[in-house]
Amino acid sequence: MRFASVCIVRSDNGFNVHQRPYIDRLKPLSSDASFVLLRQYRAQLSWLIHSRPDVCVGASKQAQVTENSFNISHVEKYNTTIRYLQDTRHLSLRISKLYPESLHVSTYTDALFSTNSDHSSQLDMLFTGKCDFIVEQ
Q1: What whole-number distance in Å separates Cα of residue 54 and Cα of residue 33?
Q2: What single DSSP character describes residue 116?
Q3: Residue 63 contacts residue 42 (beta carbons within 8 Å)
Q4: Which stretches of the chain are DSSP H helices?
């Protein structure tokens, strides 16, 4: 099944979520890209966190770049993230089937207290039964 560039593949043990076709369409920026262009392209990274939690920090860092703080290193970091995604496009998020007899709730938190450049804090939580975040498929 495919919805809004998120592919869901069922198996006997649950399902895998990936965005390979979306990753295949991503292009690096030229080294002289402007802030306006980076701002347009960085939204692509945010969309990928649905199936690739390993790029959450990179997407978060790109979202913090302002016109005043922008420099060429931000374009280089964006391009590094795009190359990483293309090199690891075979990875997916595996969500295992839940069995009532072994059901338990796991909570994963991602506290980003020091990664924000202004030292503000944010907290994300994910409640799930069994989830192997990044697996080769």
Answers
A1: 25
A2: S
A3: yes
A4: 20-25, 35-48, 56-63, 72-87
End-to-end CA, the chain: 16
| CA dist., res. 88 & res. 26, Å (int) | 13
> What's the CA gap between 19 and 112, in Å, rounded?
25
Q: Cβ(69)–Cβ(117) under 8 Å?
A: yes
Residue spans of the domains in the chain: they are 2-136
24 close to 89: Cβ distance less than 8 angstroms: yes
Closest CA to 137 of 4, 3, 8, 5: 8
pLDDT tens-digit readout, 20-54: 999 999 999 999 999 999 999 988 888 888 788 88
